[in-house]
């Protein structure tokens, strides 16, 4: 047996002692070290530190995150010329016969305040295919060669749920929105392959941030490295080497793919399992593709609603297999559409606790009441506020300001909330997410969470959303995070800059190299 102790042990309910008694990787008791220590019991003490339940991220794209650490991020580009120069420099490091793929460009940060075009990318990479992805993951831009090799021309129709932007002559500009990104040839969209060692190292860096478990989005999507079979094979390869616990949520298009993913992820190591299905109802606020009931305040569009009867059928299949369903919905119209699907499935007898709505960025009071009635989980990303500070209120307009990420109103109604990052859309640092939930980057401060509730978002709330036992409960896995601060008595800035001393999984320390970068901007 082992006693793990510190200055204090805290949960979102307050201080619960200063030590945890662990046996065979499970929690036996939580309380005072003086009461828990027995003869022959090993003690691991962290002077002056605070132990919290292991931090969780309920929604993260782990393979793209690991890819980002060795790839090219364009997030900090300040102009089109700057973006072109960065992309050209990166292209020089990519093997000559390989496509050039970069991520996380942000048109809101560019001096020109516009999306790049194929002509811009042709300046950077004129001699081979190039594709770049907006940081939201819902818009891509392809150069002329990538468009040509993918058969995207003036005669190519828009796919259902997507748009190919066109110039006045009907020719593609290179901008591809939502499902139109799927038109890019798979060999071009993926870029270089990620090795098993790269993925394990990326997960170790997540452990270094205090994360003990993640809800990992796996499979086909519109971003690089999200191809279901390839990712399933990669996860199976690393299953017995995972430093943290991974609950796989697959992005699949057929019942057969869901069943196959369940089989692959269920027959692997003890820290990897199939959790359920992910689908999309709309796009992003930043890309004006979130589905809204009323038009955006700054652009005359109501976005793109992607949900169909196929999604209901796939959700039903995943639930029948014992999994969860997580459907992406940013705009209020998308939220209503997803709740309609869930209302139907609840009426068929399925358990609402296994239904999640991802993001829930714009939600009216009436929709919050629907959440309350159904007891459906809202999986939220407070870090979005930090990225959207300069433009989100302009997107929705003054009449809908109070609808933007209304965390406190949802909590007061008893709506289950789970914290996450959606990395690599945002940095995967859970402490940054907690801090953003508290100070909200100054946006609609009436919806700020208390430090205790912010901690609960990334511990008990996220644990419930990924099907884990209540943290620190007797018999639950001894998954703990040791911090330099007491998050219940710290400001948002103090939490944001806090140090993770140790990450403990099943009672054992996870050894990580904290000198390695955990983010690339």
Overview of the structural elements:
This protein is α/β, with parallel strands linked by helices and 521 residues long. The chain has a domain of 116 residues: Diaminopimelate Epimerase, Chain A, domain 1. It contains 18 helices and 20 strands. The chain is globular, with a radius of gyration of 23 Å. It starts with a strand and ends in a 12-residue tail after the last strand.
Write a brief caption for the model.
It is built from 18 helices and 20 strands. The chain is of the alpha/beta class. The radius of gyration is 23 Å and the shape is globular.
Q: Main beta sheet, described?
A: 8 strands, parallel
- How many β-strand stretches? 20
Q: Return the CATH class of the domain at 74-189.
A: Alpha Beta
Could you give the order of strands across the largest sheet?
5-11-12-13-14-15-16-17
Mean pLDDT: 95
Q: What is the subunit arrangement here?
A: single chain
Number of helices: 18
Backbone shape: globular
Q: Helical amount among residues, as a percent range?
A: 25-40%
Question: What fraction strand?
Answer: 15-25%
CATH architecture assignment of the domain at 74-189:
Roll
The CATH topology assignment of the domain at 74-189 is: Diaminopimelate Epimerase, Chain A, domain 1
Radius of gyration: 23 Å
What low-confidence regions span 5 or more consecutive residues with pLDDT below 50?
A: 222-226
End-to-end CA span:
43 Å
Q: Decide which structural class fits the backbone.
A: alpha/beta
């Amino acid at each position: 047996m082992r006693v793990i102790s510190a200055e204090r042990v805290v949960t979102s309910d307050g201080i619960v002692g200063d030590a945890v008694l662990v046996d065979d990787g499970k929690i036996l008791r939580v309380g005072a070290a003086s009461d828990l220590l027995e003869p022959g019991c090993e003690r691991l003490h962290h002077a002056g530190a605070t132990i919290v339940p292991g931090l969780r991220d309920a929604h993260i794209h782990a393979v793209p995150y690991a890819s980002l650490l060795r790839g090219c991020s364009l997030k900090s580009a300040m102009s089109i010329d700057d973006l072109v120069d960065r992309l050209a420099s990166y292209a020089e490091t990519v093997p000559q016969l390989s496509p050039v793929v970069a991520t996380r460009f942000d048109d809101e940060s560019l001096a020109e305040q516009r999306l790049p075009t194929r002509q811009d990318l042709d300046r950077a990479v004129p001699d081979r295919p190039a594709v770049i992805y907006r940081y939201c993951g819902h818009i891509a831009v392809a150069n002329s060669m990538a468009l040509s090799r993918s058969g995207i021309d003036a005669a190519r129709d828009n796919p259902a749920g997507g748009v190919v932007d066109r110039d006045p002559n009907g020719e593609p500009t290179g901008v591809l929105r939502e499902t139109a990104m799927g038109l890019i040839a798979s060999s071009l969209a993926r870029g270089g392959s990620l090795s098993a060692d790269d993925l394990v190292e990326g997960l170790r860096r997540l452990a270094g941030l205090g994360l003990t478990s993640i809800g990992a989005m796996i499979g086909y999507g519109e971003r690089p490295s999200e191809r279901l079979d390839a990712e399933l094979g990669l996860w199976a390869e690393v299953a017995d080497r995972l430093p943290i616990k991974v609950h796989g949520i697959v992005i699949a298009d057929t019942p057969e793919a869901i069943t196959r993913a369940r089989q692959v992820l269920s027959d692997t190591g003890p820290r990897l399992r199939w959790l359920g299905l992910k689908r999309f109802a709309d796009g992003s606020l930043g890309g004006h593709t979130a589905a809204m009931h009323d038009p955006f305040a700054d652009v005359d569009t109501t976005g793109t609603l992607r949900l169909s009867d196929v999604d209901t059928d796939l959700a039903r299949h995943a639930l029948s297999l014992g999994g969860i369903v997580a459907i992406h919905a940013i705009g209020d119209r998308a939220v209503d559409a997803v709740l309609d699907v869930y209302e139907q499935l609840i009426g068929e007898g399925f358990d609402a606790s296994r239904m999640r709505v991802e993001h829930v960025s714009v939600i009216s009071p009436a929709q919050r009441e629907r959440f309350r009635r159904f007891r459906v989980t809202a999986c939220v990303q407070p870090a979005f506020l930090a990225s959207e500070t300069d433009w989100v209120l302009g997107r929705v307009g003054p009449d809908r300001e109070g609808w933007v990420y209304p965390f406190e109103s949802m909590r007061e109604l008893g709506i289950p909330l789970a914290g996450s990052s959606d990395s690599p859309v945002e940095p995967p640092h859970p402490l940054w997410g907690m801090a953003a939930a508290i100070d909200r980057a100054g946006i609609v401060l009436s919806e700020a969470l208390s430090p205790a509730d912010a901690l609960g978002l990334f511990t008990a709330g996220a644990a419930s959303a990924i099907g884990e036992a209540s943290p620190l409960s007797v018999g639950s896995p001894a998954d703990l995070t040791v911090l330099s601060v007491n998050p219940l008595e710290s400001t948002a800035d103090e939490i944001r800059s806090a140090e993770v001393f140790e990450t403990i999984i099943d009672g054992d320390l996870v050894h990580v190299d904290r000198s390695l970068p955990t983010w690339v901007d």
